[in-house]
Give the backbone structure.
Amino acid sequence: MNILETDGERLLVAVRTLLERKGIVSTAEVMERMAITDAASPGQGARMVARAWVDPKYRDLMLEDGAKAAEALGIPMRGMPPLGVLENTAEVHNLVVCTLCSCYPRAVLGYPPFWYKSAAFRARAIRDPRELLASEWKTVVPDTIKLRVVDSTADYRWMVLPMRPPGTDGWDEARLTAIVREGDMIGVTVPAV
Ligand code: FE
């Protein structure tokens, strides 16, 4: 009996076997990367956001080199594509999409949610992002604020540094971390208290 059920699974095994035979990547390295990706979750990105809110130096580092900023908090980035960070301000709101497939900042957010991979999200994010955010997420970005849609690719991943919401003065990092949701770091929602 063949335990590989689908074409996709057979293709995966074939590619992995080839990479190992050619000495490009070892089984141990593949297993390590899978374990790191499995362990990644939006809580990691949330820690980065909260740190940036309380520490201007960390914010500067994050905007300059997202991967370095992630590593500074102990998030493993070895072997991952570069990570860019887009800062939301009073003038500009950022939205991340992979128009081609599902490229996602997995190292800091974990696996992409189902909607991120959907053809509908990918098309509407380009065609009418303002309408998409308002109708699907109730995130209203007024016309006075520039809405920038950034394409995440296999070579370069993006996350959003959202604005710190009002009413959080004096909050410590742990409390701030707890209010940052996955969607806030993709730009479909904004943090609120
Ligand atoms: Fe992709």
In short: Strands lie at 83-87, 92-97, 146-151, 157-161. Residues 7-37 form one domain. The CA atoms of residues 96 and 186 lie 5 Å apart. Residues 98, 100-103 surround fe (iii) ion (CB under 6 Å).
